[in-house]
Amino acid sequence: MQVFIxxxxxxSKNTDDFVTLLPVGDRARATKFQKxxxxxxxxxxxxxxxxIGKKYTSIAHRDKLVVVATASNAHLGVDIENVSVKRDxxxxxxxxxxxxxxxxxxxxxxxxxxxxxxxxxxxxACTHFITYGDYLICVVANKKFAMPRVHNFDVGSILTAxxx
Length: 164
Known about the structure:
The structure is a single chain. By secondary structure, this protein is an alpha+beta fold. The protein has one domain. It is 40% helix and 27% strand. It has a four-stranded mixed sheet. It has a three-stranded antiparallel sheet with strand order 4-6-5, covered by helices on one side. Helix 3 packs antiparallel against helix 4.
């Protein structure tokens, strides 16, 4: 199990170069996004998945970060949230049908886990939380696994590999 993180700024200057590296269906989908940030998140996430090459993947994004969790032998789900964003977490938890957490950080743990489980589609056998600066990442899987390794994804390697 591994987690890869990249920033959309890494593809923002030559977006068209990266779009051409997507599979045809993803290229068509990328052109339909109206918001630039969302378009960059889509392009980067799908390029990461295509270049990481594991059997099971899950993608999440928040702000300028895109996260891809991968595994060769487990279904998984991932979510990321910026924990520095203040919100009425008691009201948000009630809207989710959950008991109000004691702290904002506890709310973000509950929220990211809920989102990751939704992507997984079943009750997880394992849950891990990763702190990355102001962000909290939750990874869930249908099998037990050790704390995933976190890697910064080298976007430059994609263009280099395609040029060779």
